[in-house]
Amino acid sequence: MTVHRMRPRQEPVGHARLGVDGVSLAPVHAGEPDVPFAVTRISPEARRAAQRVLASGWVTTGPETELFEREFAAYVGAGHAVAVSSCTAALELALRALRLPPGGTVLVPDVTFCGAVHAVLHAGLRPVLVDVDPRTAMVTPATVARAARACGCPHALMVLHYAGAPAPVAELAAAARLPLEYVVEDAAHALGASVGDRPVGSLSRATCFSFYATKNLPIGEGGMVTTDDDLLAAWIRRARLHGMSTDAWRRNLPGGHWRYTVEDAGLKANMTDVQAAIGRAQLGHLDDWQRRRHALAERYDTALATVPGLEPPDAATVGRHARHLYVVRVLEEYGTSRDELIDRLGERGIGTSVHFVPLHQMPYFRRVAVIPPDGLPGADALFPQLLSLPLHPWLTGHAVDRICGELGRLAPSTARPTNTRRPAGLRTLVIGAGEAGQALARDLARTPEFGLVPVGFLDDDPAKRQAAAIADLPVLGELDDTRAVALAHRIEAVVVAIPGLRPDRFSRVAKAAEATGASVRYLPSFVAALRRDVVGTDMRALDVQELLGRTEMHVVSPEARSTVAGRRVLVTGAGGSIGSELCHQVRAFGPSRLFLLDHDESNLHRLQLELYGDALRSDDIVISDIRDRPRIDQVFRELRPEVVFHAAAHKHLPLLEMHPCEGVKSNVRGTENLVRAAADAGTGRFVLISTDKAADPVSVLGATKRLAELLVGRAQETAPTGTVFAAVRFGNVLGSRGSLLSVVAQQLGSGSAVTVTHPDVTRFFMTVEEAVGLVLEAARMARGGEVFVLDMSRPVRIVDLVRRFARSVHVPDVDIRYTGLRPGEKLNETLFSAQERHTRTSHPRILAATPTAGSGHPTALENELPVLYAAAERNDTGDVRRILSALLPGFPAAQPPHPGHAVLADPYPDDF
Can you tell me the distance from the alpha carbon of 142 to that of 147, in angstroms, rounded to the nearest whole number? Predict the structure, then answer.
């Protein structure tokens, strides 16, 4: 809902408008009836139904409400429907029913009705505004992910089906790293819409509808929550009426009782039987009304197709539009601003509306909402364009023709309708006007199948910027102008075509483009393009799920959130890939303090900027080396962390084979320092991040992490009551710094062969988001002394992964060079050692490694660790390897051949 111009502004009675020469003008629409923006009709059947209820003596919530709920649930294919007083009340009740922590963050579209944010605030939660794509007027996975980063990790997501167009609910939830159980759909516009072939109302845990006077099912006021969750429906049913265990109707039924109870805070938000009776009767007409809306929308589409500068929003996903609103974007080509057009249409008796004023442009919401650091440029670009035209079942075809005719006549002569539409495809900005960029632009211009229409170049070369045109396209600025040019020219896609562009420059360009809602694509190096004769087809966007061969899972239960909510949390190795993701997810769960510990001050500064939008304003950053026991003891004494996630480690397998003493100092002694300090400080929960290479280790990395696991287990044996020590073991992480894919991408881009150690080498993989989410679940489940193992599905052959990745960048003939297994590498990793058996836990993706009879902790551990530390301090590689071999049977004591630098340059799929 928004404030509509239900009827156009009228001149005062007897007032004559004057022309430019002072001559009185007759009304432009003389003889034509006004066309109001919206009309509300209550059918004769609905009027009779209301009279019947009024005569019955029971007018509040009762039998009509129950019948309306059943019929509505059947219409949208939901298990339950709960009738309430408004869609705003429905949203608030749905959010309350999710039982989120007080102050929890909820992602909300910036372009939505203000009532949606009021629902978040009244539920005791904090809204996080999400930018929209100006082409669709809806949020995208990219803008959702950016907003999620701005708040750490959100607790819930509100999805709006704008104007009745379907939104990609599942994709948006995945981008927010939330299961569908924490998605609430705002379907105020979307009764009759579907995502794919599934009706809106049956997709997520809770969907909220509106029956306001102008909606597709008009009652006057009212709303509905649909869900398949029995418990959620029952809770909302109680909460809509003060939280009472039973309503007045049921208390007065045979067998009912006057007594009721209240267990939760509720609202006064019930629907009356008068409203429900009207709704039931109106529902019988809904299909006919929907068909009429679609016919009128098609008439608009046809008539406006030849008016340049007026375009309806693009579809955000496949599905059926509910046609609640007919929205157009008034673009620059139209030649008249949106605001002026509203006034001129009003003068001609045509009502219009605007859906919506972006929330961040309102002072109150700027004070109470989280706004991403980069702002909301998509909403800012879209708002001056938005215009809603009349659309309702009682609108005549003649009225639509008249509206479209006026829109054509009001366009300046330079923008008058033609018989040609703009070229099909996304408006594309090419970064780089050199040979690669020019070849790309020509390729795109003559190959419409790519779906990209080049608009111009950006280039830092002053000579190119002074040229009138290059490859028949203008050079619109330099690379630092990406954001301004993208907004000014309504750019929808940005393609980087500069060979060897530095990563930091590419990152700045990509962020600037994404901030405007444009998608970002890039070419491999021009050398590779020449070798493989590729241009447009090499542009890529990486799909990690395809590479893994399975669906990612980002589910963190409310119980896992409670492990850190309100507690003092310390993350070691906070600046690393795993550590920083831990910080993002933990911060979203509301710890009382979050301490970031790392020895690299640059990484800590970067992480604090990511988490909070600024840095160096708090004392939550801790610069420390975990090898320094006095410093670690001081940190724990002063900070008194209640929960510790220990992610600090040396993890580069080949380098640790060359420098085993460093692995012992950090991975073993550093862990012991932390474990001792945690026990002395009364830390309640300590979780070690381990690796699958700790199972029957043959590498220094695996051996040192196995000893770290044993230290954690030993600490549990002497831990004070209430202290829990546990370890979580998992494999390789896609997306971490220096990981396999980043190296393969560089090799493919340079045109060189991709190096793989062995044709049959396999590894376990998961994404960093998955791994951290499951670590939090394991932390919740820990009772003390466990080694948890994350189930990463089946191992993936590295050769297959490389080939899938190459296909995703359109390099089918990838060259692979085999270098041979390196010292310390296994052909196939295992998750459990020969002395361990795996047992199931309460979580389907988390296993436990249980020692078999007679295995357990090495008896020599107490005696040999000081000797091991002394050898490491002497930097005696031979002694270190011999002691590791004595402690861990199967670990090779002999010094392996020193690997050459060429081998070290190969991708190493051993990061964890």
Answer: 9
